[in-house]
Amino acid sequence: MTGNFIKTHPGFLERGQAEQIISHFNSNNYPNSGEESDFLEMKEVLDQRVFEKVVDFLNTYKPLSIIENFETLGETLRFAQQCCFIYSGSFYRELQLACASLSTFDKILYSETKEPIVIKIGDEEQFVHKVDENGPRNMLDFLVIVQGDQININFRKQENIVKANPGELVIIPHLWTNEFTVESQDTAYIMLYRIAVDPSRYEIVDF
Amino acid sequence: MRIQDFDKIKAHVTFSRSIVRVFMEEGEFLVKFFRGEAFTGESILRTLEWRAFPNDNVLGDWKIEFWDIEGKSLEGVHHHLVHGSRVLFVPSPKNTNLSMVEKLIQECRDAQNKGAKCWVFFEGAHEYGDLFKKEGINLFKIGGNTRMNFPFIIEKEF
């Protein structure tokens, strides 16, 4: 089992997509229908690409015992389709950071949403992430750096710091998601997809 | 997936990994495999046993007959038909992604002409999203259609 492996993908997010996300985040008004359509289309592509990375990560590193003996990508895909979902739940933060879901119509509290979460980190601020103990046991965090220079992701229990650049996707496997902080020298935006994995949903024969 | 007569015969049929496989959840039968109408082979299967024959990743109809173990009485028939079924393609490129997608779309068209509904999944599929949409080909999405069954799965190089 190689569940502790962190994977990074530079250039995951294009500049135009980053601008759309930040614009949406900072907009106090509902977007007009044209913008809404563009935004939804962009988000659908992002969701799809994250799902591709979920399947690739599970297929390559097999972080769960139930998939250790899977031989084909199709088997992993079947598992991921049935068992992976974007999870919100609540998690701890030290500062009152600006957070919003990526929902087009509402900026609801991130603890209530099942959308990916966008977090704005101001100068000298720090985003602290701790998984709710009542949440799912198996969690993959997909952190997309939307904007910001010199971003450090500090995994406290592992005493390891990962540096990330704008546009980069950082895949954090479930044994690392317990607690980490994100620090930036400048104002930064990050987008967090939290993928919960529930093997009890898996039905081997009826895919 | 469960066979059509699952209430009577507790068996499952899968079409993936280049094989057609029958798995007996419960009971014992003489199971006969037909590719189209051509007899392929037979085996007595008991609870938790399975038998498989290669399908060569060729999309086509199969018929599975369930006889009593003496082969005297036909107890049920499962028709594994392409028409009306979902077909999932999990391709990998022999050369470039572009040539893979061209061949994949052609194979999807062939499947659609047989009455199948096509789904595809591969890394980078989103880049061809408009093309697939135009062809009536579906992409997987996270958390969607989690209980959808796929009677046919084609996983091969294109």
Structure description:
The complex is a heterodimer of chains A (207) and B (158). Chain A is α+β, with helices and mostly antiparallel strands. Chain A has a single domain (7-198), classed as Jelly Rolls, CATH 2.60.120. Chain A has helices at 15-26, 33-61, 73-83, and strands at residues 7-9, 84-86, 98-101, 117-121, 126-130, 139-147, 151-155, 160-164, 169-172, 179-184, 188-197. In chain A, the strands form 2 sheets. In chain A, strands 1, 2, 3, 4, 6, 9 and 11 form a 7-stranded antiparallel sheet that branches. In chain A, strands 5-10-7-8 form a 4-stranded antiparallel sheet, with no helix packed on it. With 158 residues, chain B is mainly beta. Helices cover 15% and strands 39% of the residues of chain B. Chain B has 2 helices and 11 strands, in the order ββββββββαβαββ. Chain B has a 4-stranded antiparallel sheet with strand order 4-3-6-7, with no helix packed on it. Chain B starts with 9 loop residues before the first strand and ends with a strand. The mean pLDDT of chain B is 92.
Summarize the structure.
With 207 residues, chain A is an alpha+beta fold. Chain A is 25% helix and 29% strand.
What is the 3D shape of chain B? Answer: elongated
Determine Rg of chain B (CA atoms, Å): 17 Å
Radius of gyration of chain A: 17 Å
Number of domains of chain B: 2
Q: Give the N-terminus to C-terminus distance of chain B in angstroms.
A: 26 Å
Q: What's the number of helices of chain A?
A: 3
Principal-axis shape of chain A equals globular
Uncertain regions spanning at least 5 consecutive residues of chain B: none
Number of strands of chain A: 11
CATH architecture of chain A: Sandwich
Strand coverage percent of chain A? 25-35%
Strand content of chain B: 35-45%
CATH class of chain A, named Mainly Beta
How helix-rich are the residues of chain B, as a percent range?
10-25%
Number of strands of chain B: 11
**Sheet bearing the most strands of chain B, described?**
4 strands, antiparallel
Oligomer: heterodimer
